[in-house]
Each structure stands twice: as structure tokens, then as C-alpha cells.
Amino acid sequence: MSADMDSIEVRVDEAAQLFNTLDPFPFRERDLDKEAEEFIVGWARELPRNRPFRIVIHLPQSECKEGLSAQLRESFSRYFTYRADMTGRDLNEMFRVGRLSLAIGIAVLAACFIAAGFVRRIFGAGELTRFINEGVIILGWVANWRPIEILLYDWWPLVRRRNLYLRLAAAGIELKPQA
User: Fold this and answer.
1) pLDDT per residue over 83-138, tens digit each?
2) Residue 1's pLDDT is what?
3) Residues 18-45: what's their mean pLDDT?
4) N or C: at which end does the chain have fewer Cβ atoms within 10 angstroms?
5) Does one domain contain both 13 and 70?
6) Is 116 a member of any domain?
7) How many CB atoms lie within 10 A of CB 73?
8) Which residue has the higher pLDDT, 25 or 119?
9) Residue 1 domain flag
10) pTM of this prediction?
11) Contact at 8 Å (CB) between 90 and 158?
12) Strand order of the sheet with strand 6-11?
């Protein structure tokens, strides 16, 4: 790996510290330890988005066994790919809820316009009619606030998180013996 590549530096006393000890699966299939994941993800967020990076794991010499780097690479890749998939599902669910909410919001807005027309016909012109009409129309637009927020803004952080997980899944793993 190139020397000028960005790195996430992790120091542990044994490779097992990186993984959830309660997870019954074999080493390669275990989930990452929550604190290790938070540390790695937090550091990865600080790195430039347009450049690849590597994860450098500092271990005692006795822990640096043949093939461990490949096992860790496979474990990290599997775990972060899974996290990216889960985030992608959350994103799909958010868009589904956003579309449904928008359909409801548009129906409410249409009902509010119809109600404003009835109010005008029943009460005629006047300040009270104008007040009620404006309130009903505002209610209709407010009903669309959340769907519009979902469809315009709320999905960006999920896409960024999914892309970060994919970058972490693709990151190389380098083992360095501790002095």
C-alpha cells in the first residue's frame, strides 16, 4: 500500500478485542465490538471522501500470525458490507414512508382547498372567512412538511453513512507489530 494513503490506526493487545465477545460465530463472521466500530467509523468520517484508506492494526508481535491480515480483511469487509446493506434498507424504508406520507399530505392539501371553498360559499366574503381559509390552507401545506423534508433532506445522511460503510468494507488491513 502506498505510504501517502490515509490510515486509521487501531492499537489492541489481541485481535479478538476488535470483535464482540458474546457473538457465538467463528472469528471471521463475528460482529465488530461496538467501541471498536465507533472508533473506526468516527475516524473514517474525518478522512477525505474521495480517497481510499487503510486500517492499520497495531498488535503485539506474538499476535501477528500468518494469514491474520486476510482474516481481518474478510471480517471487516463482511461486517461493513452488512452494515451498508442495512443502511440501504433503512434508506429504502425512508423513501417508502416519504412517498406514502406525500400521498397523504397531498390528499390533505386537496381536502383543505375544498374545505376553504365550502367556507367561502357558506360564510361569504369577510375577515372571518379569510381567517378560516388561510388557516385551512396553512394546515394543508403543513401536512406536506414532513414528506417534503424526508424526500429532500433526510436521506442524505443515510447515503453518506452507507457510502462510508462501503468504503470501510473496501479498506485494506495492515498489521503492524507493536514495539
Assistant:
1) 999 999 999 999 999 999 999 999 999 999 999 999 999 888 889 999 999 999 99
2) 47
3) 81
4) C
5) yes
6) yes
7) 19
8) 119
9) no
10) 0.82
11) yes
12) 6-11, 53-59, 172-177
Q: Give the length of the chain.
A: 179
More confident residue, 115 or 16: 115
Residues 29 and 60 in one domain: yes
What the block records as the C-alpha cell of 114 is 375544498
Number of domains in the chain: 2
Closest-CA residue to 83 (of 131, 141, 40)? 40
- Reading the block at residue 74, the C-alpha cell is 474478510
Q: Alpha helices, DSSP H only, in the chain?
A: 34-46, 68-123, 127-142, 145-149, 155-170
Question: CA dist 91 to 170, 174, 175, Å?
Answer: 21, 32, 34
pLDDT at 70: 87
State mean pLDDT over 66-89. 92
Which of 147, 155, 165 is closest to 92 using CA atoms?
155
Range of the domain at 35: 6-87+167-177
- 171, 110: one domain: no
